[in-house]
Amino acid sequence: MTTTSLSAQPGPVARRRWTVLAVCALSMFLVGLDTTIVNVGLPAIGEGLGTGTRGLEWVVDAYTVVLAALLVTSGALADRFGRRRVFRVGLVVFGAASLVCAVAPSLGVLVAARAVQGVGASMLSPVALAIVVSAMPDPRERARAIGIWASVFGLSMAAGPVTGGALVAALGWRSVFWINVPVVVVALVLVAVFVPESHGQRARRLDLPGQVLLTLALGASVWVLIEGPHIGWSSPVAAVGYVLIAVATTAFVRVENRRSEPLMDLGLFRRPVFAMAVLGAIAVFVALSTALLLNTFYLQHARGWTPLAAGLTTLPMAVGATLCAPWAGSLVGRLGPRRPLLLAGAFTAAGGLCLADLGQDTDVRLLLAAQLLLGIGFGFANAPLTNAAVGGLPASRAGVAGAITSTARQVGSAVGVAVAGALIAGAGPDALDRAARPGWLLVAACGLFLMGVARTAAPVRREA
């Protein structure tokens, strides 16, 4: 088989470039969908497997923590062994793990299978972005492509609860995992037909010490957030967790700074624009995952709504994200990332503040308005944050920057789920609204932080 490199092609045919983008976007649809589709089915999973909020948090975060920890390594493996090859392996692993999730007889099996799903998903996201960036050399065209890419990802994240609610209502909670199988099959066929094999210009060495330390730091952080309400924040066990986080994080930074080819190029964080884009990505996904989890438990437990009805309340979010993501990409291409980031922050903050005084009988119209505002904010956020992270970097570093940004998104998702779960842990149906209020204030704070990130964003750089 002849091996080609998208980045080495002097002028790929426009139709081929956009076809490759479509295939990559389908993989991102899978990754995003599985991050949120499970949320609305959590109460049904809890009833089916006999577990409470703590176990359900692990159903979500086992996926996101593993995905976050392995994204950069998977990108390095793709550069070394071939992007299409790793991409296809990721699809197969993801699909097989989905089958295990669908037939899981216990919580332990489900959580383990979700972790394996995260392994497969980690082989999709960084490769997809690397291909998109290398296939679109013109900054304006790249910004539009990232806008479409972010639109599909935003649609999958926001549409997950709607899709999940419909599936749970019609076929039960296991169907939210069965749905992945046909999508994986279609994606495998499209990759085989349209995506050429390609490699990085120079394969990076694997950084196993850095990988272990990063996984340990992320896993310990999420463990403390999820288990803290149950073991006590000041208990000796929690103190051990704090020490483990500090030691693992410090060791990770020291190891990465001493390696010639680190897992994460920490030097990128010396660029204020990049560092703020990463923090902004974390904030966006903390807000999104917090909002989705609080919405699910409030509507189903406190107000007795069905999974389908609860999922349908997020439809305005899906509409807002889908419409605004490509618009954001266009704005980035013409005006740079600052304006769409300001819009993202303002709408996200407004959505959180709408529900800061949530009660047992809050008007449904207010709930829908809040979801629409959050969806608009989410739609405006992804394209400028991704563009700010990779903009101005040579192609050789764009893939690493994109992988770090993708890692930040999943870290934000994991943290948001853990924080939201900690807020409502042990709260009965009559107290869920009050327990959720700090979470909605956190969502608003994330929006305000995004507005601060916008102040550091520079206009898009154009190649000479």
From TrEMBL:
InterPro entries xref list: EmrB-like (IPR004638), MFS (IPR011701), MFS_dom (IPR020846), MFS_trans_sf (IPR036259), Sugar_transporter_CS (IPR005829)
Q: Which UniProt keywords apply?
A: Antibiotic resistance, Cell membrane, Membrane, Transmembrane, Transmembrane helix, Transport
TM region(s), chain numbering:
20-46, 58-77, 89-113, 119-136, 148-171, 177-196, 208-226, 232-253, 273-299, 305-329, 341-360, 366-390, 411-428, 440-458
- Domain annotation Major facilitator superfamily (MFS) profile: ranges: 20-462
Q: Name one Pfam family in it.
A: MFS_1
Chief location bin: membrane
User: Its topology with respect to the membrane?
Assistant: Multi-pass membrane protein
Keyword Cell membrane among UniProt keywords: yes
The reply to whether S-adenosyl-L-methionine figures as a keyword in the UniProt entry is: no
From the Swiss-Prot or TrEMBL record, state where the protein is found.
Cell membrane
Q: Which PANTHER family match?
A: MAJOR FACILITATOR SUPERFAMILY MULTIDRUG TRANSPORTER MFSC (PTHR42718)
Q: Which family does it belong to?
A: Belongs to the major facilitator superfamily. EmrB family.
Instruction: Please state what the protein is called.
Output: MFS transporter
